[in-house]
Amino acid sequence: MQSLRALPRGAGPGALRDLTTLLEAAVDADDDVDLCFRDELIRVLGPVMGEDTPVTVEDAAACATGVDAKVLVAMLPTLRAVLAQVRGLKVCFTREAVGVLSRAEALLQTAPVLRTREELEAALTTLCARLAAELSLLHAPVPIMAGEALPTARWLFGDGPPLRGTAVLELARGLDDFCRRAPLAGPDLEALRALARRADAERDTPGWPLLLERLRTVRPRLLPQKSLSPLERSLAGAAPRVTLGPPSLEALLR
Length: 254
Hints:
By secondary structure, this protein is mostly helical. It has helices at about 1-5, 20-30, 35-50, 55-65, 70-85, 95-110, 115-140, 145-155, 165-180, 185-200, 205-220, 230-240, 250. It contains 13 helices and no strands.
């Protein structure tokens, strides 16, 4: 009300655009509006709009946003509720948080152009970047881009389809666990080889070369070391150094 009173008489509809955020919040509020609000609208808009002057919060917000008042009444409570949920998230990589972010993403697909929608989109962008950072840490050295974070998280929780590159992510995520069980033999080694074989089918994804280098680094820990006789050690030391790396992840584990 104070912002409305600060507007000059006859300022016209354009003056309401600076009050869009306040008007959208007022539409969402379920409180009774000061009866003076109608008089202030008439003072500010009446000289310009005449009989078309809005006299309710909903109509004033519609005038400021260009969105039908009924649509505002239907959409704003949901938009603002989801915005509050998104802003309240402390950790992103939980099933509950991913559900909140997914609802926000879906809501943005249908919401009209409003200031509240812009705020929700900005908040979602920030949180998706945080989610991507959490997922990248889990799948190091393979990075997760912000645009891939939500679909990847949904897949991890079993709530979405697998994406291209998920086999690489699965191997990256499990590699530390295999290292803790090293040296590998029997079923553990075969399980790792199976993961590597699946990841090799995605060698065209950006994460595959990074995972290849990571596997090269940890390979000595993973594979059981054979005991060599003195003669074998001597021959091994005299063997020429091979600089060309294996052509696949699975080949590194042979």
